[in-house]
User: Which sequence fits this backbone?
């Protein structure tokens, strides 16, 4: 299987409950990006290491490892629409995202990011849905969780502990699948349910 095929096919379904976070994360070793592989413009926007002291330009910013943990816990792969959802939900879970911030992030991802990373209008629709879903969720701010404490925990127990509502995600994933029946990453999220 090529790297591209692995990227297209990898995800840990939301229905996966007993796998530990460490076990799920180790699956990315074969093809996952390293922080240095991420284009600088994306790191400047999404990685808190580049924030100015005391200023959060984009709430929910994380390093790549934390971002990958969130993919796993939300039951999303690593395709572009998965990225849009994970970024949006993480930002929304901060409960601090403003309309201006959402618009600026949308503009940057659509027009400034490198071509292979740019969001389409469909991707932005998923991103905006996810921001709102993260906002209405009662989960902790996903960018602020110390995932090192959870590496040996089963995924279901982590979701319960940090307040990720699986039923809320399932309901949205069903809507997303109906909205985008032709897109693989929008139609596999309910595997096992």
Assistant:
């Amino acid at each position: 299987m090529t790297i591209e095929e692995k990227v297209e096919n990898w995800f840990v379904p939301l229905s996966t409950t007993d796998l530990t976070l460490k076990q799920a994360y180790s699956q990315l070793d074969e093809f996952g990006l390293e922080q240095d592989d991420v284009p600088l413009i994306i790191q400047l926007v999404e990685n808190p290491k580049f924030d100015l002291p005391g200023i959060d330009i984009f709430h929910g910013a994380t390093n790549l490892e934390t971002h990958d943990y969130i993919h796993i816990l939300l039951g999303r792969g690593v395709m572009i629409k998965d990225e849009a959802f994970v970024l949006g939900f993480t930002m929304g879970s901060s409960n601090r995202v403003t309309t201006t911030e959402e618009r600026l992030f949308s503009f940057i991802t659509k027009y400034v990011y490198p071509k292979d990373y740019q969001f389409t209008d469909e991707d932005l629709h998923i991103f905006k849905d996810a921001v709102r879903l993260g906002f209405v969720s009662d989960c902790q701010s996903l960018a602020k969780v110390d995932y090192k404490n959870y590496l040996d925990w089963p995924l279901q127990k982590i979701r319960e502990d940090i307040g990720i509502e699986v039923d809320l995600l399932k309901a949205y994933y069903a809507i997303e699948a109906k909205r985008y029946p032709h897109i693989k990453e929008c139609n596999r999220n309910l595997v096992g349910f």
Notes: The chain is about 50% helix and 0% strand.
